[in-house]
Specification:
31% strand; 3-stranded mixed sheet; 4-stranded mixed sheet; alpha+beta; 4 domains; Trypsin Inhibitor V, Chain A; rod-shaped; 257 residues; 16 strands; single chain
């Protein structure tokens, strides 16, 4: 065992200097050599842009950069493929250490079901805003002659009428049947006397006109459910502009009365 003499002040100073030098060496070695080496001090990785990528594409990209990920949320965005990255944190081009975890929001595989909002009797603009709020897509606008110009008369999904409150997948596209106002083209007033209400409505619609008010006459001696009067009447060159209405009187009492 080596002993350092401390018989004189000089020996003490030498001893103290050696200890100080060792401590400083340990200090600088730990903070400026060991820590930078163990933590990759000063070495950063640029976070790639993951938005719009699939899960497989994202994993390959992060593996190349020695980064981790965690899916923290999922939501549904119409028109985006399932399991596509929607959001990320840290953001693209951020500088991070190796092994940093990137937190992700992805698009769900299945669309949630929502209830169809009421769009009829709204203007086209208002209906479009409602569709946007509910996460639905406006499809085609189908104009038909009607006094209610630019007002939604009916909503169709996959070619069929859909009622408000019906369950429909979020992101679905629906068509709007919209009134175009009265047409400049005049049509003959059809004769629907003696027809049932269903038959009369088909004839009126086929003529480019609309069915107006319905009035029931419980005192009529005609067969119940048949048309006993219409306004305007047909014949004598009677004409209406496309989209105008015909009021109907029906024999018998209203249904459920």
């Amino acid at each position: 065992m080596i002993k350092i003499s401390t018989d004189s002040k000089k020996d003490v100073f030498i001893h103290f200097g050696i200890l100080t030098t060792l401590l400083l060496a340990l200090f600088f070695g730990f903070f400026f050599v060991y820590l930078p080496w163990s933590t990759n001090h000063g070495e950063t990785i640029t976070v790639p842009n993951l938005k719009g990528l699939t899960i497989d594409q994202m994993e390959d990209l992060l593996d190349e950069r020695n980064l981790e990920y965690e899916v923290t949320d999922s939501t549904f965005t119409p028109g985006v493929a399932p399991l596509t990255i929607l959001k990320q944190y840290p953001l693209a081009n951020s500088k991070v250490k190796q092994g940093r975890k990137i937190y992700l929001t992805i698009n769900t595989e299945t669309a949630p079901m929502i209830r169809m909002p009421k769009l009829t009797e709204m203007s086209v603009r208002s209906a479009e805003q409602q569709l946007l709020t509910y996460g639905l897509v406006r499809g085609n606008l189908k104009y038909v002659p009607d006094l209610q110009q630019n007002v939604v008369l009916e909503v169709q999904y996959e070619g069929k009428k859909i009622e408000a409150g019906t369950l429909i997948a979020k992101g679905s596209s629906v068509d709007l049947v919209v009134g175009s106002g009265t047409s400049d083209v005049e049509v003959d007033v059809p004769d629907v006397m003696g027809k049932t209400l269903e038959e009369a409505e088909l004839i009126i619609k086929g003529s480019g006109l609309e069915r107006g008010s319905i009035i029931y006459d419980g005192n009529s001696t005609e067969p119940a459910g048949t048309i006993i009067r219409q306004n305007p009447e047909s014949g004598d060159g009677a004409k209406l502009k496309g989209g105008e209405v015909i009021d109907l009187w029906i024999a018998g009492n209203p249904p459920n009365n």
